[in-house]
Design brief:
Elements lengths: L7 E6 L3 H18 L14 E6 L8 H15 L4 E6 L2 E6 L9 E4 L7 E4 L5 H11 L14 H10 L6 E4 L1 H13 L8 E5 L4 E5 L11 H11 L3
């Protein structure tokens, strides 16, 4: 078997991430003894993946610091154009860098009665094409595709989640649907998530602000069990 070295950047973040990530590091250390692997620490660039805990507790850290300064920044600068999230027996694939999160827009006359806010939705052919290429590798001649308006799709995900295998959505709609997906299991706190492109990945537990799950080892177990699929 050929050997391979993976460099993984570990970022605990906040909330449940500070509890899940240490468990994950312990998990990695344990695998070194079982599978004759070695584990060393590096303070260098050019990692193969990022093991990201969680980010997003606006009552403690403002969103412009926690999200725009880390999570959303990672997605854009590493061009992690696809967000993959497995739930029960289906996946939600979310466009990850365009849509309503395209950073086109702004506001003027802030905090006055003349305040104006403008936000644009960005959809590109490149963004759509690479999503299709990612999803349709191989022979899918028998693939069945259904189209839904997002409002009725949310209802079907609740009523009949078993009828879906893969759900693909834009950045905003994919964000909403990937919140709803793990809720079918009873909690959004244990689902794994991956932000990916062809060169690298960022793996994390899905929901950032779940303080009631802090310290529960099973949340960490579910994350790593799910992320093996990536």
């Amino acid at each position: 078997m050929s050997s391979r070295t993976l460099k993984i950047a570990v970022i605990p973040g906040d909330s449940i991430g500070t509890k899940v990530i240490p468990i994950g590091v312990r998990y990695l250390k344990a695998t070194t003894s079982v599978y004759s692997l070695s584990l060393e620490y590096y303070l260098k660039h050019k990692y193969d993946a990022t093991h990201f805990g969680a980010m997003g507790m606006p009552n403690l850290v403002p969103d412009h610091v926690a999200l725009w300064g880390s999570l959303l920044k990672f997605r854009r600068e590493f061009d992690q154009y696809s967000s993959l999230r497995p739930y029960i027996d289906f996946w939600v694939v979310r466009e990850n860098t365009e849509g309503e999160f395209g950073l086109i827009g702004g506001k003027i006359f802030e905090d006055t009665d003349r305040e104006v806010v403008v936000q644009e939705t960005i959809m590109t052919r490149v963004g759509a094409d690479r999503r299709l290429k990612q999803l349709l590798k191989g022979d899918y001649s028998d693939l069945k595709i259904d189209k839904f308006h997002v409002d009725i799709l949310t209802a079907w995900l609740v009523l009949r989640p078993e009828q879906f295998d893969v759900v693909v959505g834009s950045n905003l709609f994919g964000d909403i649907l990937s919140d709803l997906g793990p809720a079918c299991t009873g909690t959004v706190g244990i689902a794994p998530s991956a932000n990916v492109n062809l060169e690298g990945k960022s793996l994390s537990p899905f929901e950032p602000g779940i303080p009631d799950l802090v310290g529960m080892i099973w949340a960490g177990h579910a994350q790593y069990n799910g992320c093996r699929q990536f």
